[in-house]
Amino acid sequence: MSADRFIDAMASGLARIPVLSNGYRPFFLGAACWAVLGMVLSVGSMVGRWSFAVVYGAAAWHSHELLFGYGSAFVAGFLLTANLTWTGRRPVRGGALLALVLLWIAGRVAFMTLNEVDLPTAAVIDGLFPIVLAALALHEVVIGRNWRNVAVAALVGLFAVANLWFHAEVFWLGVANYSNRAAIAVLIILISFILDCVTPTFTLNWLTPHSKGELPTEFGRFDAAVLAASAIALSVWIALPDGMPTAVALLFAGVLQAVRMSRRAGAHIWREPLKFVLRISYAFVPLGFVLVGISTLWPEAMPPSAALHAWTTGAIGVMTLAVMTRASLGQTGKPLRVDKVTRMFLVAAIVAALTRVAAPLLSAVALPLLVASLVGWIVAFGMFVLRYGSVLIRPKTRG
Question: What count of other Cβ atoms lies within 10 Å of the Cβ of residue 398?
């Protein structure tokens, strides 16, 4: 057997392993595991328990690994799974998927061993995965002639650039302010896109037999205008985080996002937990715009930390967990029903977000609220791993 045929046979054999049959399986499982482990490690480094993040700075390590470590795994899982629907092409699986997973893991290992690996080397290792993911996204758009989703490929490319930018800022300036905002902005726009990609059909499938009233509106010019206004506001915020023009742009985008969310008929689905959680999680997007806008003008009244965590712990954390839960059920052939365990960890994620936003506002009880947020986050993602880990590594349910 030639080397090429041997490699093809190995790749085909690996594709038969359930966890390597589709991108959402290893990446959603890896994202949830890292949400727990990365949070524990970052908090431990902040309180001086571990010294591996001293070279990078505990705060910067926390931001990077929760935004780029966790965030890139979620983006990969979503993108590699959605590509099948967008283009009809066979998903990345087998050996190619394993290589992507190992590349993502290499980045995490590099930043856990910063005392042994110098920062530039670790940055190069970590930067490879987002770059490869962006190249893969662009390749799928071009090969599949899926031009309507070229903006998604561009966002993934911007995310890869923000990651390299983050490392450069830390290396030369010691802090990563601009790139940190850029990463949050890209993820918020991606989440806004997910609202149109996942939730309308998901909601419509339930509302059609259950509701006699309003059905969710399809993506239209208003939605495009909201996304454009949000992107402009976020771009201004990245470059000029202070000042009246930035605040006005953010507040205006927040109002538009709230109106957009109301057009998705969320009030009719409160009896279905998974659909309702998707609505609650998306509510943190307009809330974040409003809070960051207020914080820009009155940081004493609205601490920037509280405002930012409406986006990070709230919109990014809760929304991605809800999407991963939905995919773990739907993509594996399970009924789209949530059990008690799922209800518990989704509630824990919401509690984690609310308490993290409230902590800087309520200084008298800030520490208990921070602890509650930390516990809620770890419980939420830890219970996801315990509940859906076996689902993600087993074959798809038939029939």
Answer: 5
Locus of tokens 């041997």: 6
**What six digits make up the tokens of 298?**
């009155």
User: Residue 72 corresponds to which tokens in the numbers above?
Assistant: 């890139």
Instruction: Note down pLDDT in tens along the chain; length 399 residues.
Output: 444 443 444 456 777 888 898 999 999 999 999 999 999 999 998 888 888 777 788 899 999 999 999 999 999 999 888 876 666 667 788 989 999 999 999 999 998 988 888 889 999 999 999 999 999 988 888 887 777 778 888 999 999 999 999 999 999 998 899 999 999 999 999 988 877 665 544 444 433 444 445 545 667 788 889 999 999 999 999 999 998 999 999 999 999 999 988 776 555 555 677 778 888 888 999 999 999 999 999 999 999 999 999 999 999 999 999 999 998 988 888 887 888 999 999 999 999 999 999 999 999 999 999 999 999 999 999 999 999 999 999 887 664
Spell out a b/e string for 219-241, using b for 16 or more CB atoms within 10 Å of the CB, else e: eeeebeebbebbbebbebbbeeb
Angle, CA 114 vertex, CA 113 and CA 119 arms, to 5°:
140
Query: Three-state SS across the chain?
Result: CCHHHHHHHHHHHHHCCHHHCCCHHHHHHHHHHHHHHHHHHHHHHHCCCCCCCCCCCHHHHHHHHHHHHHHHHHHHHHHHHHHHHHHCCCCCCHHHHHHHHHHHHHHHHHHHCCCCCCHHHHHHHHHHHHHHHHHHHHHHHHHCCCHHHHHHHHHHHHHHHHHHHHHHHHHHHCCCHHHHHHHHHHHHHHHHHHHHHCHHHHHHHHHHHHCCCCCCCCCCHHHHHHHHHHHHHHHHHHHCCCCHHHHHHHHHHHHHHHHHHHCCCHHHHCCCHHHHHHHHHHHHHHHHHHHHHHHHHCCCCCCHHHHHHHHHHHHHHHHHHHHHHHHHHHCCCCCCCCCHHHHHHHHHHHHHHHHHHHHHHCHHHHHHHHHHHHHHHHHHHHHHHHHHHHHHHCCCCCC
The token pair at 24 is: 């959402």
Q: Sign of dihedral through CA atoms 351, 353, 356, 362?
A: negative
Sign of CA dihedral 118, 120, 123, 124: negative
